[in-house]
Amino acid sequence: MKNLIVANWKMNPTSQKEAEDIFSKIKEGAEDASAEVVVCPPFIYLSLLKGLTLGAQDCFYEDKGAFTGEISTAMLRDLGVEYVIIGHSERRRYLKETDEIVNKKIGEALENGLKVIFCIGETGEERDAEKKKEVLERQIRKGLEGIESLENVNVAYEPIWAIGTGNNCGVEETKESIDFIRGVVKPETRILYGGSVKSENSGDYIKFAGANGLLVGGASLKPDEFIKIVKSAE
Ligand code: PGA
User: Is 149 a domain residue?
Assistant: First the structure.
């Protein structure tokens, strides 16, 4: 099983030129990587970028029809997109995505042959109240309800308090969460860590916390830094 390193560009950058520049640098640096590298740009750049595995940052749960503004998994497949991030905490928070919506999206994505990066994670308050495991288990059980095969499901453990804060989760604590998640999903399911990953800490998650990959936000927009992260996972 290869380690999976995912670049989540979020709502960045703001021009096609910049997107192409960042992408081509990543492509060059990641060419001989032994890890699997996936870049997830905003939807509108997906057809522009070629030469690396692409992922979308979201999808809708219907194939087509009267759903203004939405993008379907069939459309993504047609563009050659292989992965889709589902259930990111920013979507749960700002777009009010529930576990039920996440579950429908995962089902639809798998049915259309996309590989899923299923995000879960606790808030700082839930962690302080010692509710982490309860929250993670609920997100997994509801998110994967009725999903028969986990073959194309990757779980990304992203503690919300660690995302974009520079305050990455310690290796010991991450290991404890990953071990717990592994007990709820299948032993062979790839589990990624995400939350303020940078090249100084990235290798430790793979080597010491048992992560099978990383979901990288901010640092994935800096090609040199992202390539260092990719290499640290080898
Ligand atoms: P970050 O974001 O690396 O900027 O913390 C990670 C994510 O939200 O996927």
Answer: yes
CATH value at residue 223 = 3.20.20.70
Choose which residue among 39, 196, 221 to substitute to test ligand 1 binding: the one with the highest number of ligand atoms within 8 A of its C-beta: 196
From ligand 1's centre to the CA of 10, what distance in Å?
Answer: 9
14-43 confidence digits (pLDDT tens): 999 999 999 999 999 998 999 999 999 999
DSSP of 44-99? GGTTT--SSEEEES---SSSSSS-TT---HHHHHHTT--EEEES-HHHHHHS---H
47 in a structural domain: yes
* CA-215 nearest atom, ligand 1: 9
Among protein residues, the one whose CA lies closest to atom 3 of ligand 1? 217
Which residues are tagged catalytic?
A: 88, 158
Task: Please tell me the pTM assigned to this model.
Answer: 0.98
Q: Which domain holds residue 62?
A: 4-12+34-232
